[in-house]
Structure formats: structure tokens, C-alpha cells
Amino acid sequence: MRATDHEKLKAGHVYIATPATHLFIKPGEILLRPGPEINRWKPSIDVLFLSAAIAYDGHCIGIILTGMLNDGTSGMQVIKRCGGVSMVQDPKEAEFPDMPLNVLDTTEVDYCLQLDEMMPAIRKIFKQDIKHTAIPEDILTEGRIIENMITNPKGPSPLGSPSIFACPDCGGMLWEIDNGGFSRYRCHIGHSYTDYDLMIKHASEAQATLWIALRVMEERKSLLDKMARQNRLKGYQRTVGDLEQKSKQLEEHLHRLKEIIVESEKVERA
User: Fold this and answer.
1) For residue 159, is pLDDT > 70?
2) Across residues 127-155, what is the average pLDDT?
3) If both were cysteines, with which of 24, 86, 87, 216 could 109 make a disulfide (CB 3.0 to 4.6 Å apart)?
4) Strand duo 85-89 + 61-64: pairing
5) What 3-state class would DSSP assign to 222?
6) Which of 1, 53, 51 is nearest to 22 (CA)?
């Protein structure tokens, strides 16, 4: 069933996140928040895992199945730090192994299983006597930041140290959060990135900027050529020569820029 805001959690139910809305877990209920994208996703697995870990500490089980990129990686680390259980689908079985592989690369998971092995493992976990665990203060602080990212954009004090990077979405400063060698970045508004996501976002921005520059340069060349034709009809040969020279130089720049764009796209695809 699709989750609704302030809905009470019930045993035996499966709740599906609403499109373009983050799903938070509070003790006994669900909160839905619009908010900024987290690691370029909304809804974000990292947000779900973080809130569930804070709400249910060691009683939380995080499961990552097949999927692309790395949403859920930092959230799984939070679940582990809060005493919860981490489980991923065997990448050899996954149609898209990126998500389970990224978790395995950064987190010492409790279970790496094929799909038909998961339910017996979950039943076994349910039979265990699990004690409540204390939530680390930095995780509690981050949870408050995410939950209040819309109603209180300034949020509480930053969690990490200032980085040299600006937020690709709002231009604000990104604060670097070090989770045992796995860096994440967050701005005051709430936009959040891993190293990998920040690299992808920067690459996308760079490509967009290059294409805008190419369009502007092509339009400028068209204007130069048009002005040259108009001045030729008027007999202003000296002006025509200057305009044609500028157009020729611009054409050379356009050729080099197109080569840069092609090469940069090859690098991103590699």
C-alpha cells in the first residue's frame, strides 16, 4: 500500500514511498516530506534507513536488493552503527549489482544472500532477543537536519568540516561528513551527496555548461556572418573584413570546443 503522512505503522503491512517525497520512519508512524534530493534521489533509501535506524535502533533490518548506483549505502552504515542488521542481495544474482556491491564495499554486512534465502534469515533474526541500543549523537543530529530541511532550512550546526566544494543544486557550501573513510557532503538546505554522486553531478553540470557555451558561440558566429552580409551590400568592405575574421576565429574555437565535448563524453561513458 502507498504510504500516507502520519500513517500509523501496522505489523504485516508493506508501505511504498510516494513519488518525489521522502519517507521518514518515526516510532509507530510514517512522515512524508518533500525536501531536496538526497544523493540525487527522492524518495531516498538513505533517508528511509536513517530515520528507521533512529526510530528502532538495533531492531531495524536494512535490506538492499538489485539496483543501480549507490543510494542506500550511507543509510546502511547508519543502521549498522545503531546496532541494526544489514542484508544485501548476492550481487551474482542481482540483475543490477551496483547497489549491493556499493554496500559490500563500504559496510561489513551481516548477510549477503540470494532472494530465496532471505525470508528464513529474517525469521531467524525475529526469534533473537535484541536489546535496545543508544543512537550516536551525530546520527541524531543528522536526522533532525533531514526532518527539518523544509520547515527550518538553516537547520542545526553542521556535522562535519567545510569542504572546498559548492552544492551543485543551490550553490551553498558543502560540509564534509566522514563516516570511517566514506565521505558524504551536505549543505544547509539539506542537499546531500556521496563522493560518487557529487562527481556525477559535477560532470553533468560541466557537460551542460559546455553545450550552452557551444550554442552561444554558434549564435554569435551566425550574427557575425549576418552582419558581414549586410555590410557587404552596403559596400563597407573594411567592416566586412573585420567581421569575417572574427567569424573565422570563432569557427576555430567552435571546432576545438566540439572536440572537447566529444572527448569529455567519452570519458564519462568509460
Assistant:
1) no
2) 79
3) 86
4) parallel
5) helix
6) 51
d(CA 243, CA 124): 79
Say if residues 217 and 253 touch (Cβ distance below 8 Å): yes
Q: What's the Rg (C-alpha) of the chain?
A: 26
Q: Per-residue b/e over 73-110, b at no fewer than 16 CB within 10 Å? A: bbbbbbbbbbbbbbbbbbbeebeebbbbbbbbebbebb
* Antiparallel, parallel or unpaired: β 29-33 and 22-26: antiparallel
Q: Model-level pTM?
A: 0.63
Q: What is the DSSP letter of 12?
A: T
CA nearest to 78, candidates 49, 106, 42, 38: 49
Residue 147, judged by CB atoms within 10 A of its CB (0-12, 13-18, 19+), counts as: buried
For the stretch 47-89, pLDDT in tens is 999 999 999 999 999 999 999 888 899 999 999 999 999 999 9
- Give 40-54 as a DSSP string: TBSS-HHHHHHHHHH
Scanning the chain, the segments in alpha helix (DSSP H) are 45-56, 73-81, 98-106, 115-126, 137-147, 195-234, 237-269
Q: Which three cell numbers stand for residue 201?
A: 553531478
CA distances from 195 to 37, 91, 148, 178, 184 (A): 15, 22, 24, 11, 6
Q: Which of 134, 157, 158, 142 is nearest to 51 (CA)?
A: 142
Q: Which amino acid is at 111?
A: Y
Q: Is 269 exposed, middle or buried (0-12, 13-18, 19+ CB in 10 A)?
A: exposed
Q: What is the pLDDT of residue 40?
A: 79
The three grid cell numbers given for residue 5, joined into one nine-digit string: 503522512
